[in-house]
Design brief:
The structure is a homodimer. Chain A is of the alpha+beta class. Chain A contains six helices and 27 strands. Chain A starts with a strand and ends in a 6-residue tail after the last strand.
């Protein structure tokens, strides 16, 4: 293998796999990236055996070839090189020469034979969706996926296909951790084909999100047997899907409300952030008192003190006092961008529906907690 | 106590003590700052019982008074307040009301009686030095003070008074960790009065450094019995001095050389940084081959690979191969700003003297290590 590649392109290529490689695995090869030089690109592959990322980057190939190199170390080396074309040459015993005069490195690679094979994948359905639309689906929902992998049925994003009133096909992503539910949808073209009892793992969504840097690009999602691939430009992410029965969420979507609150997002977000400093109990409890023109947030910590913070609102329905986990509420309010939010509520312990302005494509449900 | 203070000034006041307060001490009061409202300022005091910092900040005092508040928590609160005047009021049971509408906090303070008294201090000698001059003394030397507090005689900065050829009094700071020695001096006015077997603790130098933000200001250093104070504007830092006999460093300052190297600092720094990626043995060994026009740096790690990097030099004397701890060399080269460096050397295991351009006020000695 012999390749010339710009330093910038090499850095981008290696940066793209850092989130996938396993630095601390006992299975050392999972810390390596597979470099494949062919045609007019350098392909970089990394896998944690659940998720595989393959990126292609423009390069001048003098001799095609393949070698595996430690992804984190090679990335450190690439970032510190002089800003000039980098000459990569594989040598005997899987050594990788990285030449960027005056800097000269010879890295210990390993045989590509040890590198896990990319799992076979046969697409049974393929759809395309705008990069920005997919980014929103992920940003509005992925934070509610529990980080604890053992939450059967909750530990991934639930994807399904639906249609709006005009019959346009929509991709809908729903997530929940039992205390809140996030729901977002966006139009797509093509064919949806994900199994009913399958979820997209949190880590895959985090890594897919990193590929969505150009809002103009299209993303292709292919569905196969217990797996899916996401393709954006010259980057491909393959992920196994998590098996699990997502809760029947439609039954918890309230169909009516007794109280409706309209509030400006930024002042409400500021108030949540400030009051959260004193919400130090296990449930991060914030007391939320809705009255005619104002909501009063308050929290009290045993050690530090207490905080109170009013925010102007308009309320339809009777005043009410509720309790929430302030962190859960913060994440929802923080992921939105609209100027106004509405909360649709029932009684003190009934789910609170959060809507963003006039949007019907996103919706959040936050379960209140009992105040002591 | 009742005070109005701008949010910006309150943040600055609390930021100034964060490095001194002990967040994890079993002695809870050391996590608190003492707030004293008097005349036309709010005074903030914090101590770890070795170092005490006292800052004064412009405020409107409606009622003088004093209260102790958790420094880290109050700082978090101050940073998140709306950008408006902050109203501080002490209440019964040592509660501190922090009012910045619409945000309203009531923090649990504690009685000022529990706060450690500022140690009595009587100055036996006082000098003044420019802020920028003191900053340089600290920046050129403090990194070589061992972080291990048990290195008797090395665990602080050695200060002494000397004069230059014109008879101008100079303050000289010398530090060493046994593998390198850093030496810097700058003119001062007044009287030096530090005991012979006393050192300034590393943490005190770090905290004094934070006070030196305005290069135009003068610093007053007062010396007392096993203690010193540094005063900059309305900030005062009191530190106990560490007892310890600093090594007789003059005897290790080489008086002649066999080899003299001139090198450009930036290319040499780049080379050290790059090669350091492969200097992964316990001594962080870099091999340094000086020849007529070039120095070749190289390092090899068992796991990752090897690096080689030439840098142009001019050498007086015979070529030589030496070994150094790359981190030690990096810190020295990194703290300087001059375009050119000179290295004065003897044999392979003799100390290497690093000088910055034509400057005689700073000097570094780095001990080579034996190459295997």
């Amino acid at each position: 293998m012999e390749v010339y590649i710009t330093r910038e392109e090499l850095i981008r290529a290696l940066a793209g796999v850092q989130g996938v490689v396993e630095r601390r695995s006992t299975h050392q090869i999972l810390g390596f990236a597979l470099l494949t030089a062919m045609e007019d690109f350098l392909q970089v592959t990394a896998t944690d055996q659940e998720i595989t990322v393959i990126n292609r980057h423009a390069a001048r190939i003098l001799e095609p070839g393949v070698i595996a190199a430690n992804a984190a170390h090679f990335f450190s080396v690439a970032r510190i090189l002089p800003d000039a074309p980098v000459h990569l040459v594989s040598e005997e015993n899987h050594r990788l020469v990285v030449d960027a005069p005056p800097a000269h490195f010879r890295l210990m690679g390993t045989t590509p034979d040890d590198f896990p094979a990319v799992p076979p994948f046969e697409a049974s359905a393929v759809l395309t969706i705008g990069s920005d639309a997919l980014r929103q689906l992920i940003d509005y929902t992925s934070f509610a996926i529990p980080t604890d992998d053992n939450r059967y049925g909750l530990n991934g994003g639930h994807l399904e296909s639906t249609t709006n009133a005009e019959g346009t096909p929509l991709l809908r992503m729903v997530t929940t951790d039992g205390s809140r539910l996030c729901y977002a949808e966006a139009p797509y073209q093509g064919q949806f084909g994900m199994g009913r009892h399958m979820l997209v793992p949190r880590k895959a969504l985090v890594e897919v999100r990193k590929l969505l840097t150009d809002p103009e690009k299209e993303v292709t999602i292919s569905f196969g047997e217990r797996a899916a691939t996401f393709t954006v430009g010259s980057s491909l992410l393959h992920t196994r899907l998590v098996e699990g029965e997502f809760p029947a969420y439609r039954s918890v979507l309230p169909t009516s409300w007794l109280r409706k609150v309209t509030v400006q997002r930024i002042p409400f977000l500021d108030a949540l952030r400030r009051v959260s400093l004193e919400a130090q109990d296990r449930a991060s409890t914030v007391r939320v008192e809705f009255s005619r023109d104002e909501v009063l947030l308050s929290a009290r910590s045993v050690d530090q003190g207490e905080a109170r913070h009013p925010v102007p609102i308009s309320l339809e329905g009777a005043p009410i006092v509720m309790g929430f986990n302030v962190k859960f509420f913060l994440e929802v309010v923080n992921c939105l961008e609209e100027e106004n939010l509405t909360f649709e509520m029932g009684e003190a312990l009934s789910p609170c529906v959060v809507k963003a302005g006039e949007r019907s494509d996103v919706l959040f449900i936050i379960m209140p907690i009992r105040l002591e």
